[in-house]
Design brief:
single chain, 210 residues, mainly alpha, 3-stranded antiparallel sheet, 3 strands, 47% helix, globular
Length: 210
């Protein structure tokens, strides 16, 4: 998060779009932390309670069940969790990414960052590239920057108005629930040395301190 925000803050014109964004502005006012302290989050995840509920996670801490639902996710993150627009996966287009990355079969965040830093003049395309960088690394990132950017992110960045109103909280919550269930099946109650939790983890970092 810190590295991503630091890159965008250097774009004096484009950063205004983020600091006035109804959902993303919160991330640009967070205290800077160079190194994340994730041990608490992992201890929380290792206390996940197995339930049949698909839209909520429960953690058992000191004998007390703690709920993590979309409500908690919205309150902690400040992201909107209303319903998706109709046919949301088809929003936007690939026109923008085809123009800048047409020769690449796989577009990574590393590719996006290099292209963003090469754009020296403020313009609407540089803003779209900055939004793509933010969405692809913070909102729906991979464990490593070499992973391919999700096709949905590549499409939606074409329409910046939709990027302002889209329910990013619902998307990130669903990703978090899916990843929690996947990690619990993978870990089987033990911490592995080579293991990552992809995607938007800030609410879970905060949750373990509450």
């Amino acid at each position: 998060m810190k590295n991503t925000v630091d890159v965008i803050k250097k774009l004096k014109e484009e950063v205004k779009w983020f600091t006035t964004h109804p959902q993303f502005r919160h991330f640009f006012h967070m205290p800077d932390e160079q190194y994340l302290k994730l041990q608490g989050m992992w201890m929380l995840l290792l206390r996940t309670i197995s339930t049949e509920e698909e839209d909520v996670a429960w953690f058992g801490v000191n004998g007390v069940p703690i709920r993590y639902s979309m409500r908690e996710h919205a309150l902690i993150s400040g992201l909107d969790c209303h319903e998706y627009p109709r046919k949301y996966l088809k929003l936007g287009s690939t026109k923008f990414v085809d123009y800048y990355f047409g020769g690449l079969k796989k577009i990574t965040i590393t590719d996006v960052e290099h292209k963003l830093l090469s754009m020296k003049t403020p313009c609407n395309d540089r803003l779209k590239m900055a939004v793509l960088f933010f969405l692809g690394r913070v909102i729906r990132g991979h464990a490593k920057d070499c992973g391919p950017v999700y096709p949905f992110i590549l499409r939606i960045v074409e329409d910046l108005d939709v990027c302002r109103t889209f329910p990013w909280g619902r998307l990130t919550f669903e990703d978090a629930i899916k990843n929690i269930k996947h990690m619990m099946e993978l870990l089987k109650g033990e911490v592995h040395s080579a293991c990552g939790f992809p995607g938007f983890i800030i609410p879970l970092e905060v949750k373990h301190t509450i």
